[in-house]
Design brief:
The protein is of the alpha+beta class. Helix content is about 35%, strand content about 30%. It has three domains: about 15-270, Bira Bifunctional Protein, Domain 2 (BirA Bifunctional Protein, domain 2); about 290-385, Rossmann fold (3-Layer(aba) Sandwich); about 405-475, C-terminal domain of ProRS (Translation Initiation Factor IF3). The protein has helices spanning about 15-25, 40-60, 75, 80-85, 110-120, 165-185, 235-240, 265-270, 300-315, 330-340, 350-355, 380-405, 410-420, 430-440, and strands at about 25-30, 35-40, 65, 70, 90-95, 100-105, 130-140, 155-165, 195, 210-215, 220-230, 240-245, 250, 255-260, 290-295, 320, 345-350, 355-360, 370-375, 405, 425-430, 445-450, 460, 465, 470-475.
Length: about 475
């Protein structure tokens, strides 16, 4: 296969993904196994994700802070389930400044413990509540099998941590933040997600309840794209986070935590990409428009570049790049920007100068279907409309793909077939044994128990016993 051609998605989806990440210059492998270097184009995409989320967090009353990367080992040991869940993934520092440390330090895998410790110092009265803090940072989890963005030893994320006076308020916060994630995923990333509750075996270590947004990738595998956890009073009691209520009684707080990471970049790649490369949703794309001048000689160049400069000024409200490289052909540029997923390409040549037009090509519609000629007059309005259409089109395509690969198998034998290339939406009796049987025999897990449930009841797809809720079974990343 020529080196400039991607491995087709339907031939080897995993290799296709790895090639896109590197050829589109989103990330590269670091010298430490399982770590990644996020390149400027990938970081620009992450910055746009950050900004879209940060706006939403601040609109719901949250503020940003920063907590240490190093956590005393004894902090993790205070919450039994938490340390058991994370111990296989911990990176531990035992030497500092050339001397053995009195107490080992854990490189942050998540911050519930260190933040719980600080909250116990800050929260004294009901007047101090609620505490609504978010942190942007990096964490380290010693994963065995890694893949760029999807699962790396070190990754970037945000983690929200809140403390409340009542259980009802904390539960409402847990649900509210999942709604924030779903709104972001659907309306900014054009990734349709399903909201639901994680099973007890799949929930976060130390949580009373975990809820998540689950997305279907282009190979029908599931990706947990964001999670929100109701922690109950587990961490409050482990770290003695108490407050005096209006009656002067000492009470434990109720806490939550929630996070979304750079793995969401993987979600965008695998939801929208095709055999030509990335396809980025306009609202998050580092570049929304690439403007390519086409000419054969100096006279044509002068005429074309005059128009290019004027139009680039008129389109300054958009994230735009003029590709005026002279060492490569226009065809090379077209392929290069298709690989990088830029939503809209605008070409301007001598004929366009004469006619007062531009040629546009939509990244979401390959070939002639996505090409058109537009008048230069009021081009900004036309571009805004096209970008909005591309955003909507990507969501529609992804939703159609997902819905056409969700099945309701009639029995367990059919479920084992369905999950090889799709999701099964099936009744489950909520017994751990039935969940374990599916996982062992098919490698599929319960992705979530969706909030939207049929009004009827049914029979467990595994054992045939009475079941009250349906769940999504799928293979996952």
């Amino acid at each position: 296969m020529p080196e400039d051609k991607l491995t087709p998605r339907n031939e080897d989806f995993s290799e296709w993904y790895n090639q896109i990440v590197q050829r589109a210059e989103l990330a590269d492998y670091a010298p430490v196994r399982g770590c990644m270097v996020v390149r400027p184009y990938g970081w620009a995409l992450w910055e746009n994700i950050q900004q879209a989320l940060d706006r939403r967090f601040k609109a719901t009353g949250h503020v940003n802070a920063a907590f240490p990367l190093f956590i005393p080992m004894s902090f993790l040991e205070k919450e039994k389930e938490h340390v058991e869940g994370f111990s296989p993934e911990l990176a531990i520092v035992t030497i500092g400044g050339g001397e053995k440390l009195e107490e080992p330090l854990v490189v942050r895998p998540t911050s519930e413990t260190i933040i719980g410790y600080m909250y116990s110092k800050w929260i004294k009265s009901y007047r101090d509540l609620p505490v609504l803090i978010n942190q942007w940072g990096n964490v380290v989890r010693w994963e065995l099998r890694t893949r760029l963005f999807l699962r790396t030893l070190e990754f970037y994320w945000q983690e929200g941590h809140t403390a409340h006076a009542s259980e009802e308020e904390a539960r409402a916060e847990t649900l509210r933040m999942l709604d924030v994630y779903a709104d972001f995923a659907i309306n900014e990333a054009a990734v349709p997600v399903i909201k639901g509750i994680k099973s007890q075996t799949e929930k976060f270590a130390g949580a009373s309840m975990s809820i998540s947004i689950e997305a279907m990738m282009g190979d029908t595998r599931a990706l947990q794209a964001g999670t929100s956890h109701f922690l109950g009073q587990n961490f409050a009691k482990a770290f003695n986070i108490q407050y005096l209520d209006p009656s002067n009684e000492l009470k434990w707080v109720w806490t939550t935590s929630w996070g979304l990471s750079t793995r969401f970049i993987g979600a965008i790649i695998m939801t929208h990409g095709d055999d030509q490369g990335l396809i980025l949703p306009p609202r998050l794309a580092p570049l929304q428009i690439v403007l390519i001048p086409i000419y054969k000689n100096d006279a044509e160049r002068n005429a074309v570049m005059t128009v290019v400069e004027r139009i680039s000024g008129e389109l300054s409200a958009f994230r735009l790049k003029v590709d005026d490289r002279t060492e490569v052909t226009p065809g090379f540029k077209f392929n290069d920007w298709e690989m990088r997923g830029v939503p809209l390409r605008i070409e301007i040549g001598p004929k366009d100068v004469e006619k007062g037009t531009v040629a546009v090509a939509r990244r979401d519609k390959p070939g002639k279907e996505g090409r058109a000629f537009l008048p230069q007059l009021n081009l900004a309005g036309s571009v805004e409309r096209l970008l909005s259409e591309i955003q909507d089109s990507l969501l529609q395509q992804a939703t159609h793909f997902r819905d056409s690969h969700i099945f309701d198998p009639k029995d367990y034998a059919e479920l084992t077939e369905v999950v090889q290339n799709g999701w099964a939406f099936s009744w489950w009796c909520e017994a751990d044994a039935c969940e374990a049987k599916v996982k062992e025999e098919t490698k599929a897990t319960i992705r979530c128990i969706p909030f939207d449930q049929p009004e009827a009841s049914g029979q467990c797809i595994v054992c045939g016993k009475a079941a009250k809720r349906k769940v999504y079974f799928a293979k996952a990343y």
